[in-house]
Amino acid sequence: MYGDTIADQKLLKYDHLSMMDRLVLFLAEYLGTAILVFLGCAGCVKYREGSGPGSLEVAFAFGFAIIIAVQTVGHISGAHINPVITLAALIMGVTPLIQVPLYLGGQFLGSLTGYGLLKTLVPQEYIKRSQDNVSLCSPEPNPKLQDAQIVFMEFLLTFFLVLIVCSAWDNRNSTKLDSLAIKLGLAVAGLALVGGGFTGAHLNPARTFGPVLINGDWGYHWVYWVGPLPGSIAGSLFYRIIFQKPLKETEEKSDGKITPSTNA
User: Fold this and answer.
1) Which residues pair with 134 in a beta bridge?
2) CATH of domain 6-249
3) Structural domain boundaries of the chain?
4) pTM for this prediction
5) Residue spans of the chain under pLDDT 70
6) Membrane-spanning residues where (predicted)?
7) SS3 letters for 70-117?
8) What does the pLDDT read at residue 173?
9) Of 57, 72, 97, 202, most Cβ neighbours within 10 A?
10) What is the SS3 assignment for 53?
11) For residue 9, what pLDDT is reported?
């Protein structure tokens, strides 16, 4: 999520990583995703009588979890911590295909570990909510929505998320990446605030996978693949086709050889 700009794709065209480098990349994604799922889902726990954490609290729990994860491993693996970001990175030319299995493996195992650790630490009555029989952090879209509406909302939210991340990879944005972890965390919190009441705003198949596999809540699991993955493809292709400038042109602009327009 945080990683290289498009200008760095020359270095990523061929993968010369050692086995130790690959292990470090895998472990960074594993740890980052475990942090995201553990801290984000911990913020959803209803630990006293009442209605439990509201939409604002949940949104910021995941937003701050993103900040912590990106700050921790962003300089190591790019902190994708989400398969839709890895897919977008592949399409944008930021991450080579040979590294994708390392990212995905770390993300899904990290999700299982993060949620498994939370379930070990939290009393069972906080995990399984008797009123709706859906476990903590498992898919629970608004029951008044049709399946197509749920899928399309996840598609749109993921589309916007991917546009934000693609802009961070853009070489023209390379001087504006200070405090990027905070910016990304607040962006995720904003999307969660908008979409939480509709779909839960997962935007991340790996984040969904851990709670679903451990709790067996498979009912709406498919939604969080069918919506976000096409959203990632659409968002990254849109940015690449419409907004991305040829690498040579962006380098010339940075050298002062081309005067950028005010809309660049």
Assistant:
1) 129
2) 1.20.1080.10
3) 6-249
4) 0.86
5) 1-14, 49-51, 129-132, 247-264
6) 23-48, 54-73, 85-104, 150-169, 181-202, 222-243
7) HHHHHHHHCCCCCHHHHHHHHHHCCCCHHHHHHHHHHHHHHHHHHHHH
8) 86
9) 202
10) coil
11) 47
